[in-house]
Amino acid sequence: MTPPELLLEQVMVHVNDIPGLPDVLFKVNEVVNDPESSADDLERAINNDIAVSAKLIRLVNSASYGLPSQISTLSRAIPMLGFTMVRNLVMSVSLFQLDAIFEPDLKKFWLHSFATGVVAQAIAVTDRLPDAKSQSLAGLLHDIGKVVFIQNFIRETQAVLQEQISKGLTYYEAEKNLFLTNHAEIGREIAIKWNFPPNLIAAIGYHHDPDAADGFADFARVTAAANILSQLTEEGFFFEKGYEESADACSEFYQLSEKAYKFAILEFNSQTKFFENFIEQLVLEYRAAK
Ligand SMILES: [Fe+2]
Ligand SMILES: [Fe+2]
Which domains occur in the chain, in start order? Predict the structure, then answer.
């Protein structure tokens, strides 16, 4: 296995090699964050990138198959799915296009990421925290560092999994035991490289240790709690086990109220089937193109 110092160096080389995000994403984000903007503005922003918009319409179309109402065009999709969901879909499509994405189980990874975004946003909305829309994006991207590490360091990833199982640690603890860096720090470097705003950089970088997120600890605590709640278990997601267990699990980071919990479940249930279909199609297309 690569010695820790050398590994750190190699990780940074890979981070530097990651391409920038497509412009469409910044435009879409701007529109989503502007309370004055309309569905037409969002549609125009997405249509700036023909490849992304064509793919988005195609995937939304096949993902809505079997749902009560079909969503075949962007102008229908936007009011039905909502701005934040559409922005998250554009984000997922753009990331897959970067071709820097690999995970032994892509679908599981994206479902966890999506659930973290939904839960984080629901908490922020219920508790009237600022930046609820950014919470959704922070949740969606919090583990982005894992993606880069796993893709480039297969042997080291296996060592992390081994360490995790043999010592009963979390993935993050196992990484910290073995290396000089971890997926949260790597994610932070990527977020800096992509010119993300400071709250997003902090939430990605400190989602396992939010108190260390200088100036953004409150923001990062919500991502940290949502990350715990949206761990996949054998039966489904952790937060589906009930309020008491959920509140207890994330209490180290955030005091989850029953109201926020109920809203998170509601939001998750109303959005997840569609997103699951969408990711399934995206993964299928990605694998077919390989
Ligand atoms: Fe993580
Ligand atoms: Fe996570």
Answer: 4-18+101-288 (1.10.3210.10), 20-99 (no CATH)
